């Protein structure tokens, strides 16, 4: 199985990154092929609503930025690990911009393609206790699960993670992340 981790935090070694990397470490130990990308270090423009992706005239998207090399990775992946901190009660802007560029995965009649059947894991990190921002996982489940017909493996919801290294006080979150990756079949 190919596993693609996507980190939507500007902290390249923060809490979200630690958990996404732990999921991928577990997946690798189970023999899966893994790759992790961090959206912050990539050039990903926001969607410009040109709707070229609905014309059939472009392969993925008319914007020639780093998404052009990420689209094939998404298509090849059997499991996506989507990691985002909670910013203002939601996913980060980086992650939302990334998802806006998934408009290409629905045709002009809003029929979904390429994504149905892929597995996904969500990882969220918030300063507040985990239960306060379960809503972010619920939102991701709505889009990835209900709308894009992907198959949920696990929502890993990290709370009490204000400082960048706060995860070091919650090793059980890393164990859970690694076990989730290792459980992939
Ligand atoms: C701009 C900004 C907005 C934030 N908004 C929230 C929030 O609404 N609720 C919350 O609990 N924590 C919030 N936080 C704290 C982050 O969710 C927390 O530090 C998280 O662990 C960051 O993950 P990271 O280390 O992977 O970047 C915010 C942090 C920043 C910088």
Describe this structure in words.
Helix content is 32%, strand content 18%. By secondary structure, the chain is an alpha/beta fold. The chain has a single domain, classed as Flavodoxin domain (Rossmann fold, 3-Layer(aba) Sandwich), CATH 3.40.50.360. β3, α3 and β4 form a beta-alpha-beta unit. α1 packs parallel to α5. The structure holds flavin mononucleotide. The site of flavin mononucleotide (FMN) has 19 residues, from α1.
What's this model, at a glance?
32% of the residues lie in helices and 18% in strands. It is of the alpha/beta class.
What's the topology here?
Layout: E1 2-7, H1 15-29, E2 33-38, H2 67-76, E3 79-85, H3 93-100, E4 119-125, H4 134-147, E5 151-158, H5 171-182
Parallel strand pairs: 1-2, 1-3, 3-4, 4-5
Helix pairs in contact: 1-5
The protein binds flavin mononucleotide.
Flavin mononucleotide binds at residues 9, 11, 14-17, 85-89, 125-128, 133, 161-162, 164.
Characteristics of this structure?
five-stranded parallel sheet; Rossmann fold; 18% strand; 5 helices; alpha/beta; 32% helix; globular; single chain; 185 residues; binds flavin mononucleotide
End-to-end gap: 8 Å
Overall geometry: globular
CATH superfamily: Flavodoxin domain
| Cα Rg | 16 Å
Q: Return the average pLDDT rounded to an integer.
A: 97
Question: Could you give the order of the helices and strands?
Answer: EHEHEHEHEH
- Annotation, overall tally of beta strands: 5
Helical region count? 5
CATH topology heading: Rossmann fold
Biggest sheet strand line-up: 2-1-3-4-5
Residue stretches low in confidence (pLDDT < 50, at least 5 long) are none
Which structural class do the helices and strands define? alpha/beta
Q: What's the oligomerization state?
A: single chain
Helix content: 25-40%
Largest sheet: 5 strands, parallel
Write the CATH architecture name.
Answer: 3-Layer(aba) Sandwich
Please write the CATH class name. Answer: Alpha Beta
Beta-strand portion reads: 15-25%
List the ions, cofactors and other small molecules found in this model: flavin mononucleotide
């Amino acid at each position: 199985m190919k596993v693609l981790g996507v980190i939507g935090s500007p902290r390249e070694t923060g809490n979200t990154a630690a958990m996404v990397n732990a999921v991928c470490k577990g997946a690798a130990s189970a023999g899966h092929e893994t790759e992790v990308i961090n959206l912050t270090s990539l050039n990903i423009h926001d969607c410009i609503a040109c709707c070229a992706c609905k014309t059939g005239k472009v392969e993925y998207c008319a914007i020639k930025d780093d998404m052009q090399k990420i689209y094939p990775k998404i298509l090849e992946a059997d499991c996506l690990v989507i990691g985002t901190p909670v910013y203002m009660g939601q996913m980060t802007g980086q992650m939302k911009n990334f998802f806006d560029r998934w408009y290409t995965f629905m045709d002009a009649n809003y029929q979904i393609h390429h994504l149905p059947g892929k597995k996904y894991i969500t990882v969220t990190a918030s300063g507040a206790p985990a239960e306060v921002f379960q809503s972010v996982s619920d939102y991701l489940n709505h889009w990835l699960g209900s709308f894009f017909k992907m198959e949920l493996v696990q929502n890993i919801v990290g709370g009490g993670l204000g400082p960048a290294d706060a995860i070091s006080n919650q090793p059980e979150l890393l164990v859970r992340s690694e076990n989730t990756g290792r459980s992939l079949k």
